[in-house]
Amino acid sequence: MNNLINLFKDYHGILFCILFVLNFLDCFTGWWKARLLKKENSKMGIKGIMNKLANWIILLIAFLLSYSLVKLGEIISINVGFALLLGWFVLISLIINETRSILENLVELGVKIPLVLTKGLEVYEKKIEEIELDESKGAVK
Predict the structure, then answer these.
(1) Could you tell me which residues come within 8 angstroms of residue 59 by beta carbon, excluding any fewer than 6 positions away?
(2) Per-residue b/e over 90-111, b at no fewer than 16 CB within 10 Å?
(3) Distance CA 100, CA 123 (A)
(4) Which distant-in-sequence residues (6+ apart) come within 8 Å of 138 by Cβ?
(5) Residues 6+ apart with CB under 8 A from 94
(6) Where are the alpha helices (DSSP H) in the chain?
(7) What is the pLDDT of residues 50-62, one digit of tens each?
(8) How many Å apart are CA 83 and CA 1, to the nearest integer?
(9) Cα(2)–Cα(14) distance, rounded to whole angstroms?
(10) pLDDT of 74-98, one tens digit each?
């Protein structure tokens, strides 16, 4: 149990907590929006929860793959330390997507969102996409 508590004390672990909280808030704001618009649907709710679970599976795969690539690189004496970034890019992408979804739900509920927040997310998301595109081409900036 102490290991689990220590994981969330450091700044890496807190990112996973943030994603979990954002998952919950997205489900809640989605339910709130559906209820207000009288479009509640248990199948859609379950689909949303299953998508959240799928995102956690994707995140796990990304970190397992990055760890495996680094270990393989060590075995064949090739430095592929940059592969560790894969899991972190997936994590930040999921955090951005969850945040955007929450903001979209709130906008549809009539909540006024500061423009700086929505524009800031767009800029950050574009930068992450550029980095991912560069990596897929084999060039890291």
Answers:
(1) 19, 87, 90, 91, 94
(2) bbbbbbbbbbebbbbbbeeeee
(3) 12
(4) none
(5) 19, 55, 58, 59
(6) 2-9, 11-36, 42-75, 85-108, 115-136
(7) 999 999 999 999 9
(8) 30
(9) 15
(10) 899 988 888 888 899 999 999 999 9
Helix 85-108 with 115-136: angle, nearest 10 deg: 150
For the question of whether the overall pTM of this predicted structure is more than 0.90, the answer is no
Q: Is the dihedral of CA 124, 126, 132, 137 positive or negative?
A: negative
Q: What is the pLDDT of residues 7-49, one digit of tens each?
A: 556 668 889 999 999 999 999 999 999 999 888 888 888 998 9
Tokens read off for 33: 């929006």
CA quadruple 4, 48, 26, 9: dihedral, nearest 10: 10
Assigned token pair, 55: 């995102």
Q: Quick one: pLDDT band at residue 141, thresholds 50, 70, 90?
A: very low
